[in-house]
Design brief:
alpha+beta; Outer membrane efflux proteins (OEP); 10 helices; 14% strand
Length: 434
């Protein structure tokens, strides 16, 4: 019986090590990499980043000239004014061809500031994409450890069932020997049935935990999916302030908020360019052909040559009153800037709170892990002693079952504190950039 008890702890500590035949092993890093490569939300952020890059290209292209050609054909029927200042019925046709060029010389700094804003916005979007990857990474870590914990709890339930079956067999032998009452045998068999139900429930919870992980990885199913257990070493903890100081330099959520403030400032500057005049250069080439009924008209080719014209010019636009359009744009940009600053404060506070919570939980779990290990040893010794007393007729079945429950509960609590400590330590290390 003592060998059976020891096997429970061994099974719980080595859960996940035995991989099913033909199953594919997934360690934590592989799960994280696969999740990032196949997550739909990450792909959405990548598309947003690509759109932001296109905004930068578009802003730079606005410094280039625009060139366009035109052609027109017009017909006029009925009475019209003649060269003698009289009206007559005449049909007129005209054909025009030409090309125009417009080159912005000074855009009121709008072009430069538009490029600056587009680049700042691109940097913010890229950091948002990295922040989304960080969030996904933390979620995968939590799901991975939950799957390991659920599998370990399932192993503990199977070990408890093995003990209950051994107890039932021993109780039956004692009943046959006339040393205990048949009521104890009925209780032992009832406990076996309850533990069998617990095994089924724990196995279902373990399967659901693995399924949650595979769905987070966007895998088609959990068939052939096996995770590799993590090392059982004690986690090294940094203080919350040390982690926060390290996180402020590279945390992508915080950097995204900082770059959002910078982009909002540049958007305010861009909106103010509506108060500045603009200057552009214009050039054009054109020719046309006229044909009027009842008159001698020069041929198409000669007219196209004789009517050829060129034009050069400059255009200055001075904003005087635009129905407060620029003023309203500046006000909206300033409001957006204030919102970005609030978002920065919120991101900084959220990061600090998350680090504090992770540190407190990690510290509690580390301390609880040591206490749980002591509880496992003491409850195991108490259970072994209770088994001996029961065999000698000095304890009843209820006392034996309570001792067994205390032992298996201690194993479950030890597993919980272990994975809680590992999770929180990894979260702190992740925030610290390790």
């Amino acid at each position: 019986m003592n060998n059976v008890i020891r096997k429970i702890a061994v099974c719980a500590a080595a859960v996940g090590c035995a991989v099913a035949a033909g199953a594919e092993q997934w360690d934590l890093q592989r799960c994280i990499d696969y999740a990032i490569a196949n997550n739909i939300d990450i792909h959405r952020y990548e598309l947003r980043a690509e759109s932001a890059r296109q905004d930068v290209t578009e802003a730079c292209d606005r410094f280039l000239p625009t060139v366009g050609g035109y052609a027109s054909q017009n017909f006029s029927f009925g009475r019209g004014l003649t060269a003698e200042n009289t009206y007559a019925n005449r049909n007129t046709a005209s054909t025009s061809f030409g090309a125009q060029l417009q080159l912005p010389i000074f855009q009121g700094l709008a072009g430069i500031r538009r490029v600056d804003y587009a680049k700042a916005n691109l940097s913010a979007v890229l950091e948002q994409a990295e922040a989304a990857k960080d969030d996904l990474t933390l979620n995968v870590i939590a799901a991975y450890l939950q799957a390991l914990y659920s599998s370990e709890v399932s192993a503990i339930a199977r070990g408890r069932l093995a003990i209950s079956r051994a107890d039932a067999a021993r109780t039956e032998a004692l009943v046959n020997a006339g040393r205990v009452a048949e009521l104890d045998l009925a209780q032992a068999r009832a406990q076996v049935a309850q533990d069998e139900l617990s095994v089924v429930t724990a196995a279902g919870d373990s399967a659901l935990a693995v399924l949650d992980l595979t769905q987070m990885l966007n895998l088609p199913g959990a068939a052939g999916f096996e995770i590799v257990p993590l090392s059982d070493e004690e986690p090294m903890l940094m203080s919350a302030d040390e982690v926060f100081a390290a996180a402020t330099g590279h945390n992508h959520s915080l950097r995204a908020a900082l770059l959002g403030v910078d982009a909002a400032e540049r958007n305010v500057a861009l909106a103010r360019t509506g108060y500045i005049p603009t200057l552009s250069f214009n050039a054009g080439l054109g020719t046309n052909y006229y044909s009027t009924s009842g008159m001698n008209n020069e041929g198409f080719g000669p007219q196209m040559r004789h009517n050829f014209s060129q034009s050069l010019g400059f255009s200055l636009s001075v904003p005087i009153f635009d129905a407060f359009g620029t003023r309203n744009s500046v006000r909206r940009a300033k409001i957006a800037h204030l919102e970005a600053e609030l978002q920065l404060d919120d991101s900084r506070n959220a990061l600090y709170k998350a680090i504090q919570q992770a540190y407190t939980r990690a510290l509690t779990a580390v301390r609880g892990r040591a206490a749980a290990a002591t509880a496992v040893e003491s409850s195991r010794a108490a259970f072994e002693a209770m088994q001996t007393k029961y065999e000698l007729g000095r304890a009843n079945a209820t006392e034996l079952e309570n001792a067994k429950s205390d032992y298996t509960n201690a194993l479950t609590e030890a597993a919980r504190t272990k994975y809680e400590a590992i999770l929180r330590a990894r979260v702190l290390n992740f925030y610290a950039g390790r």
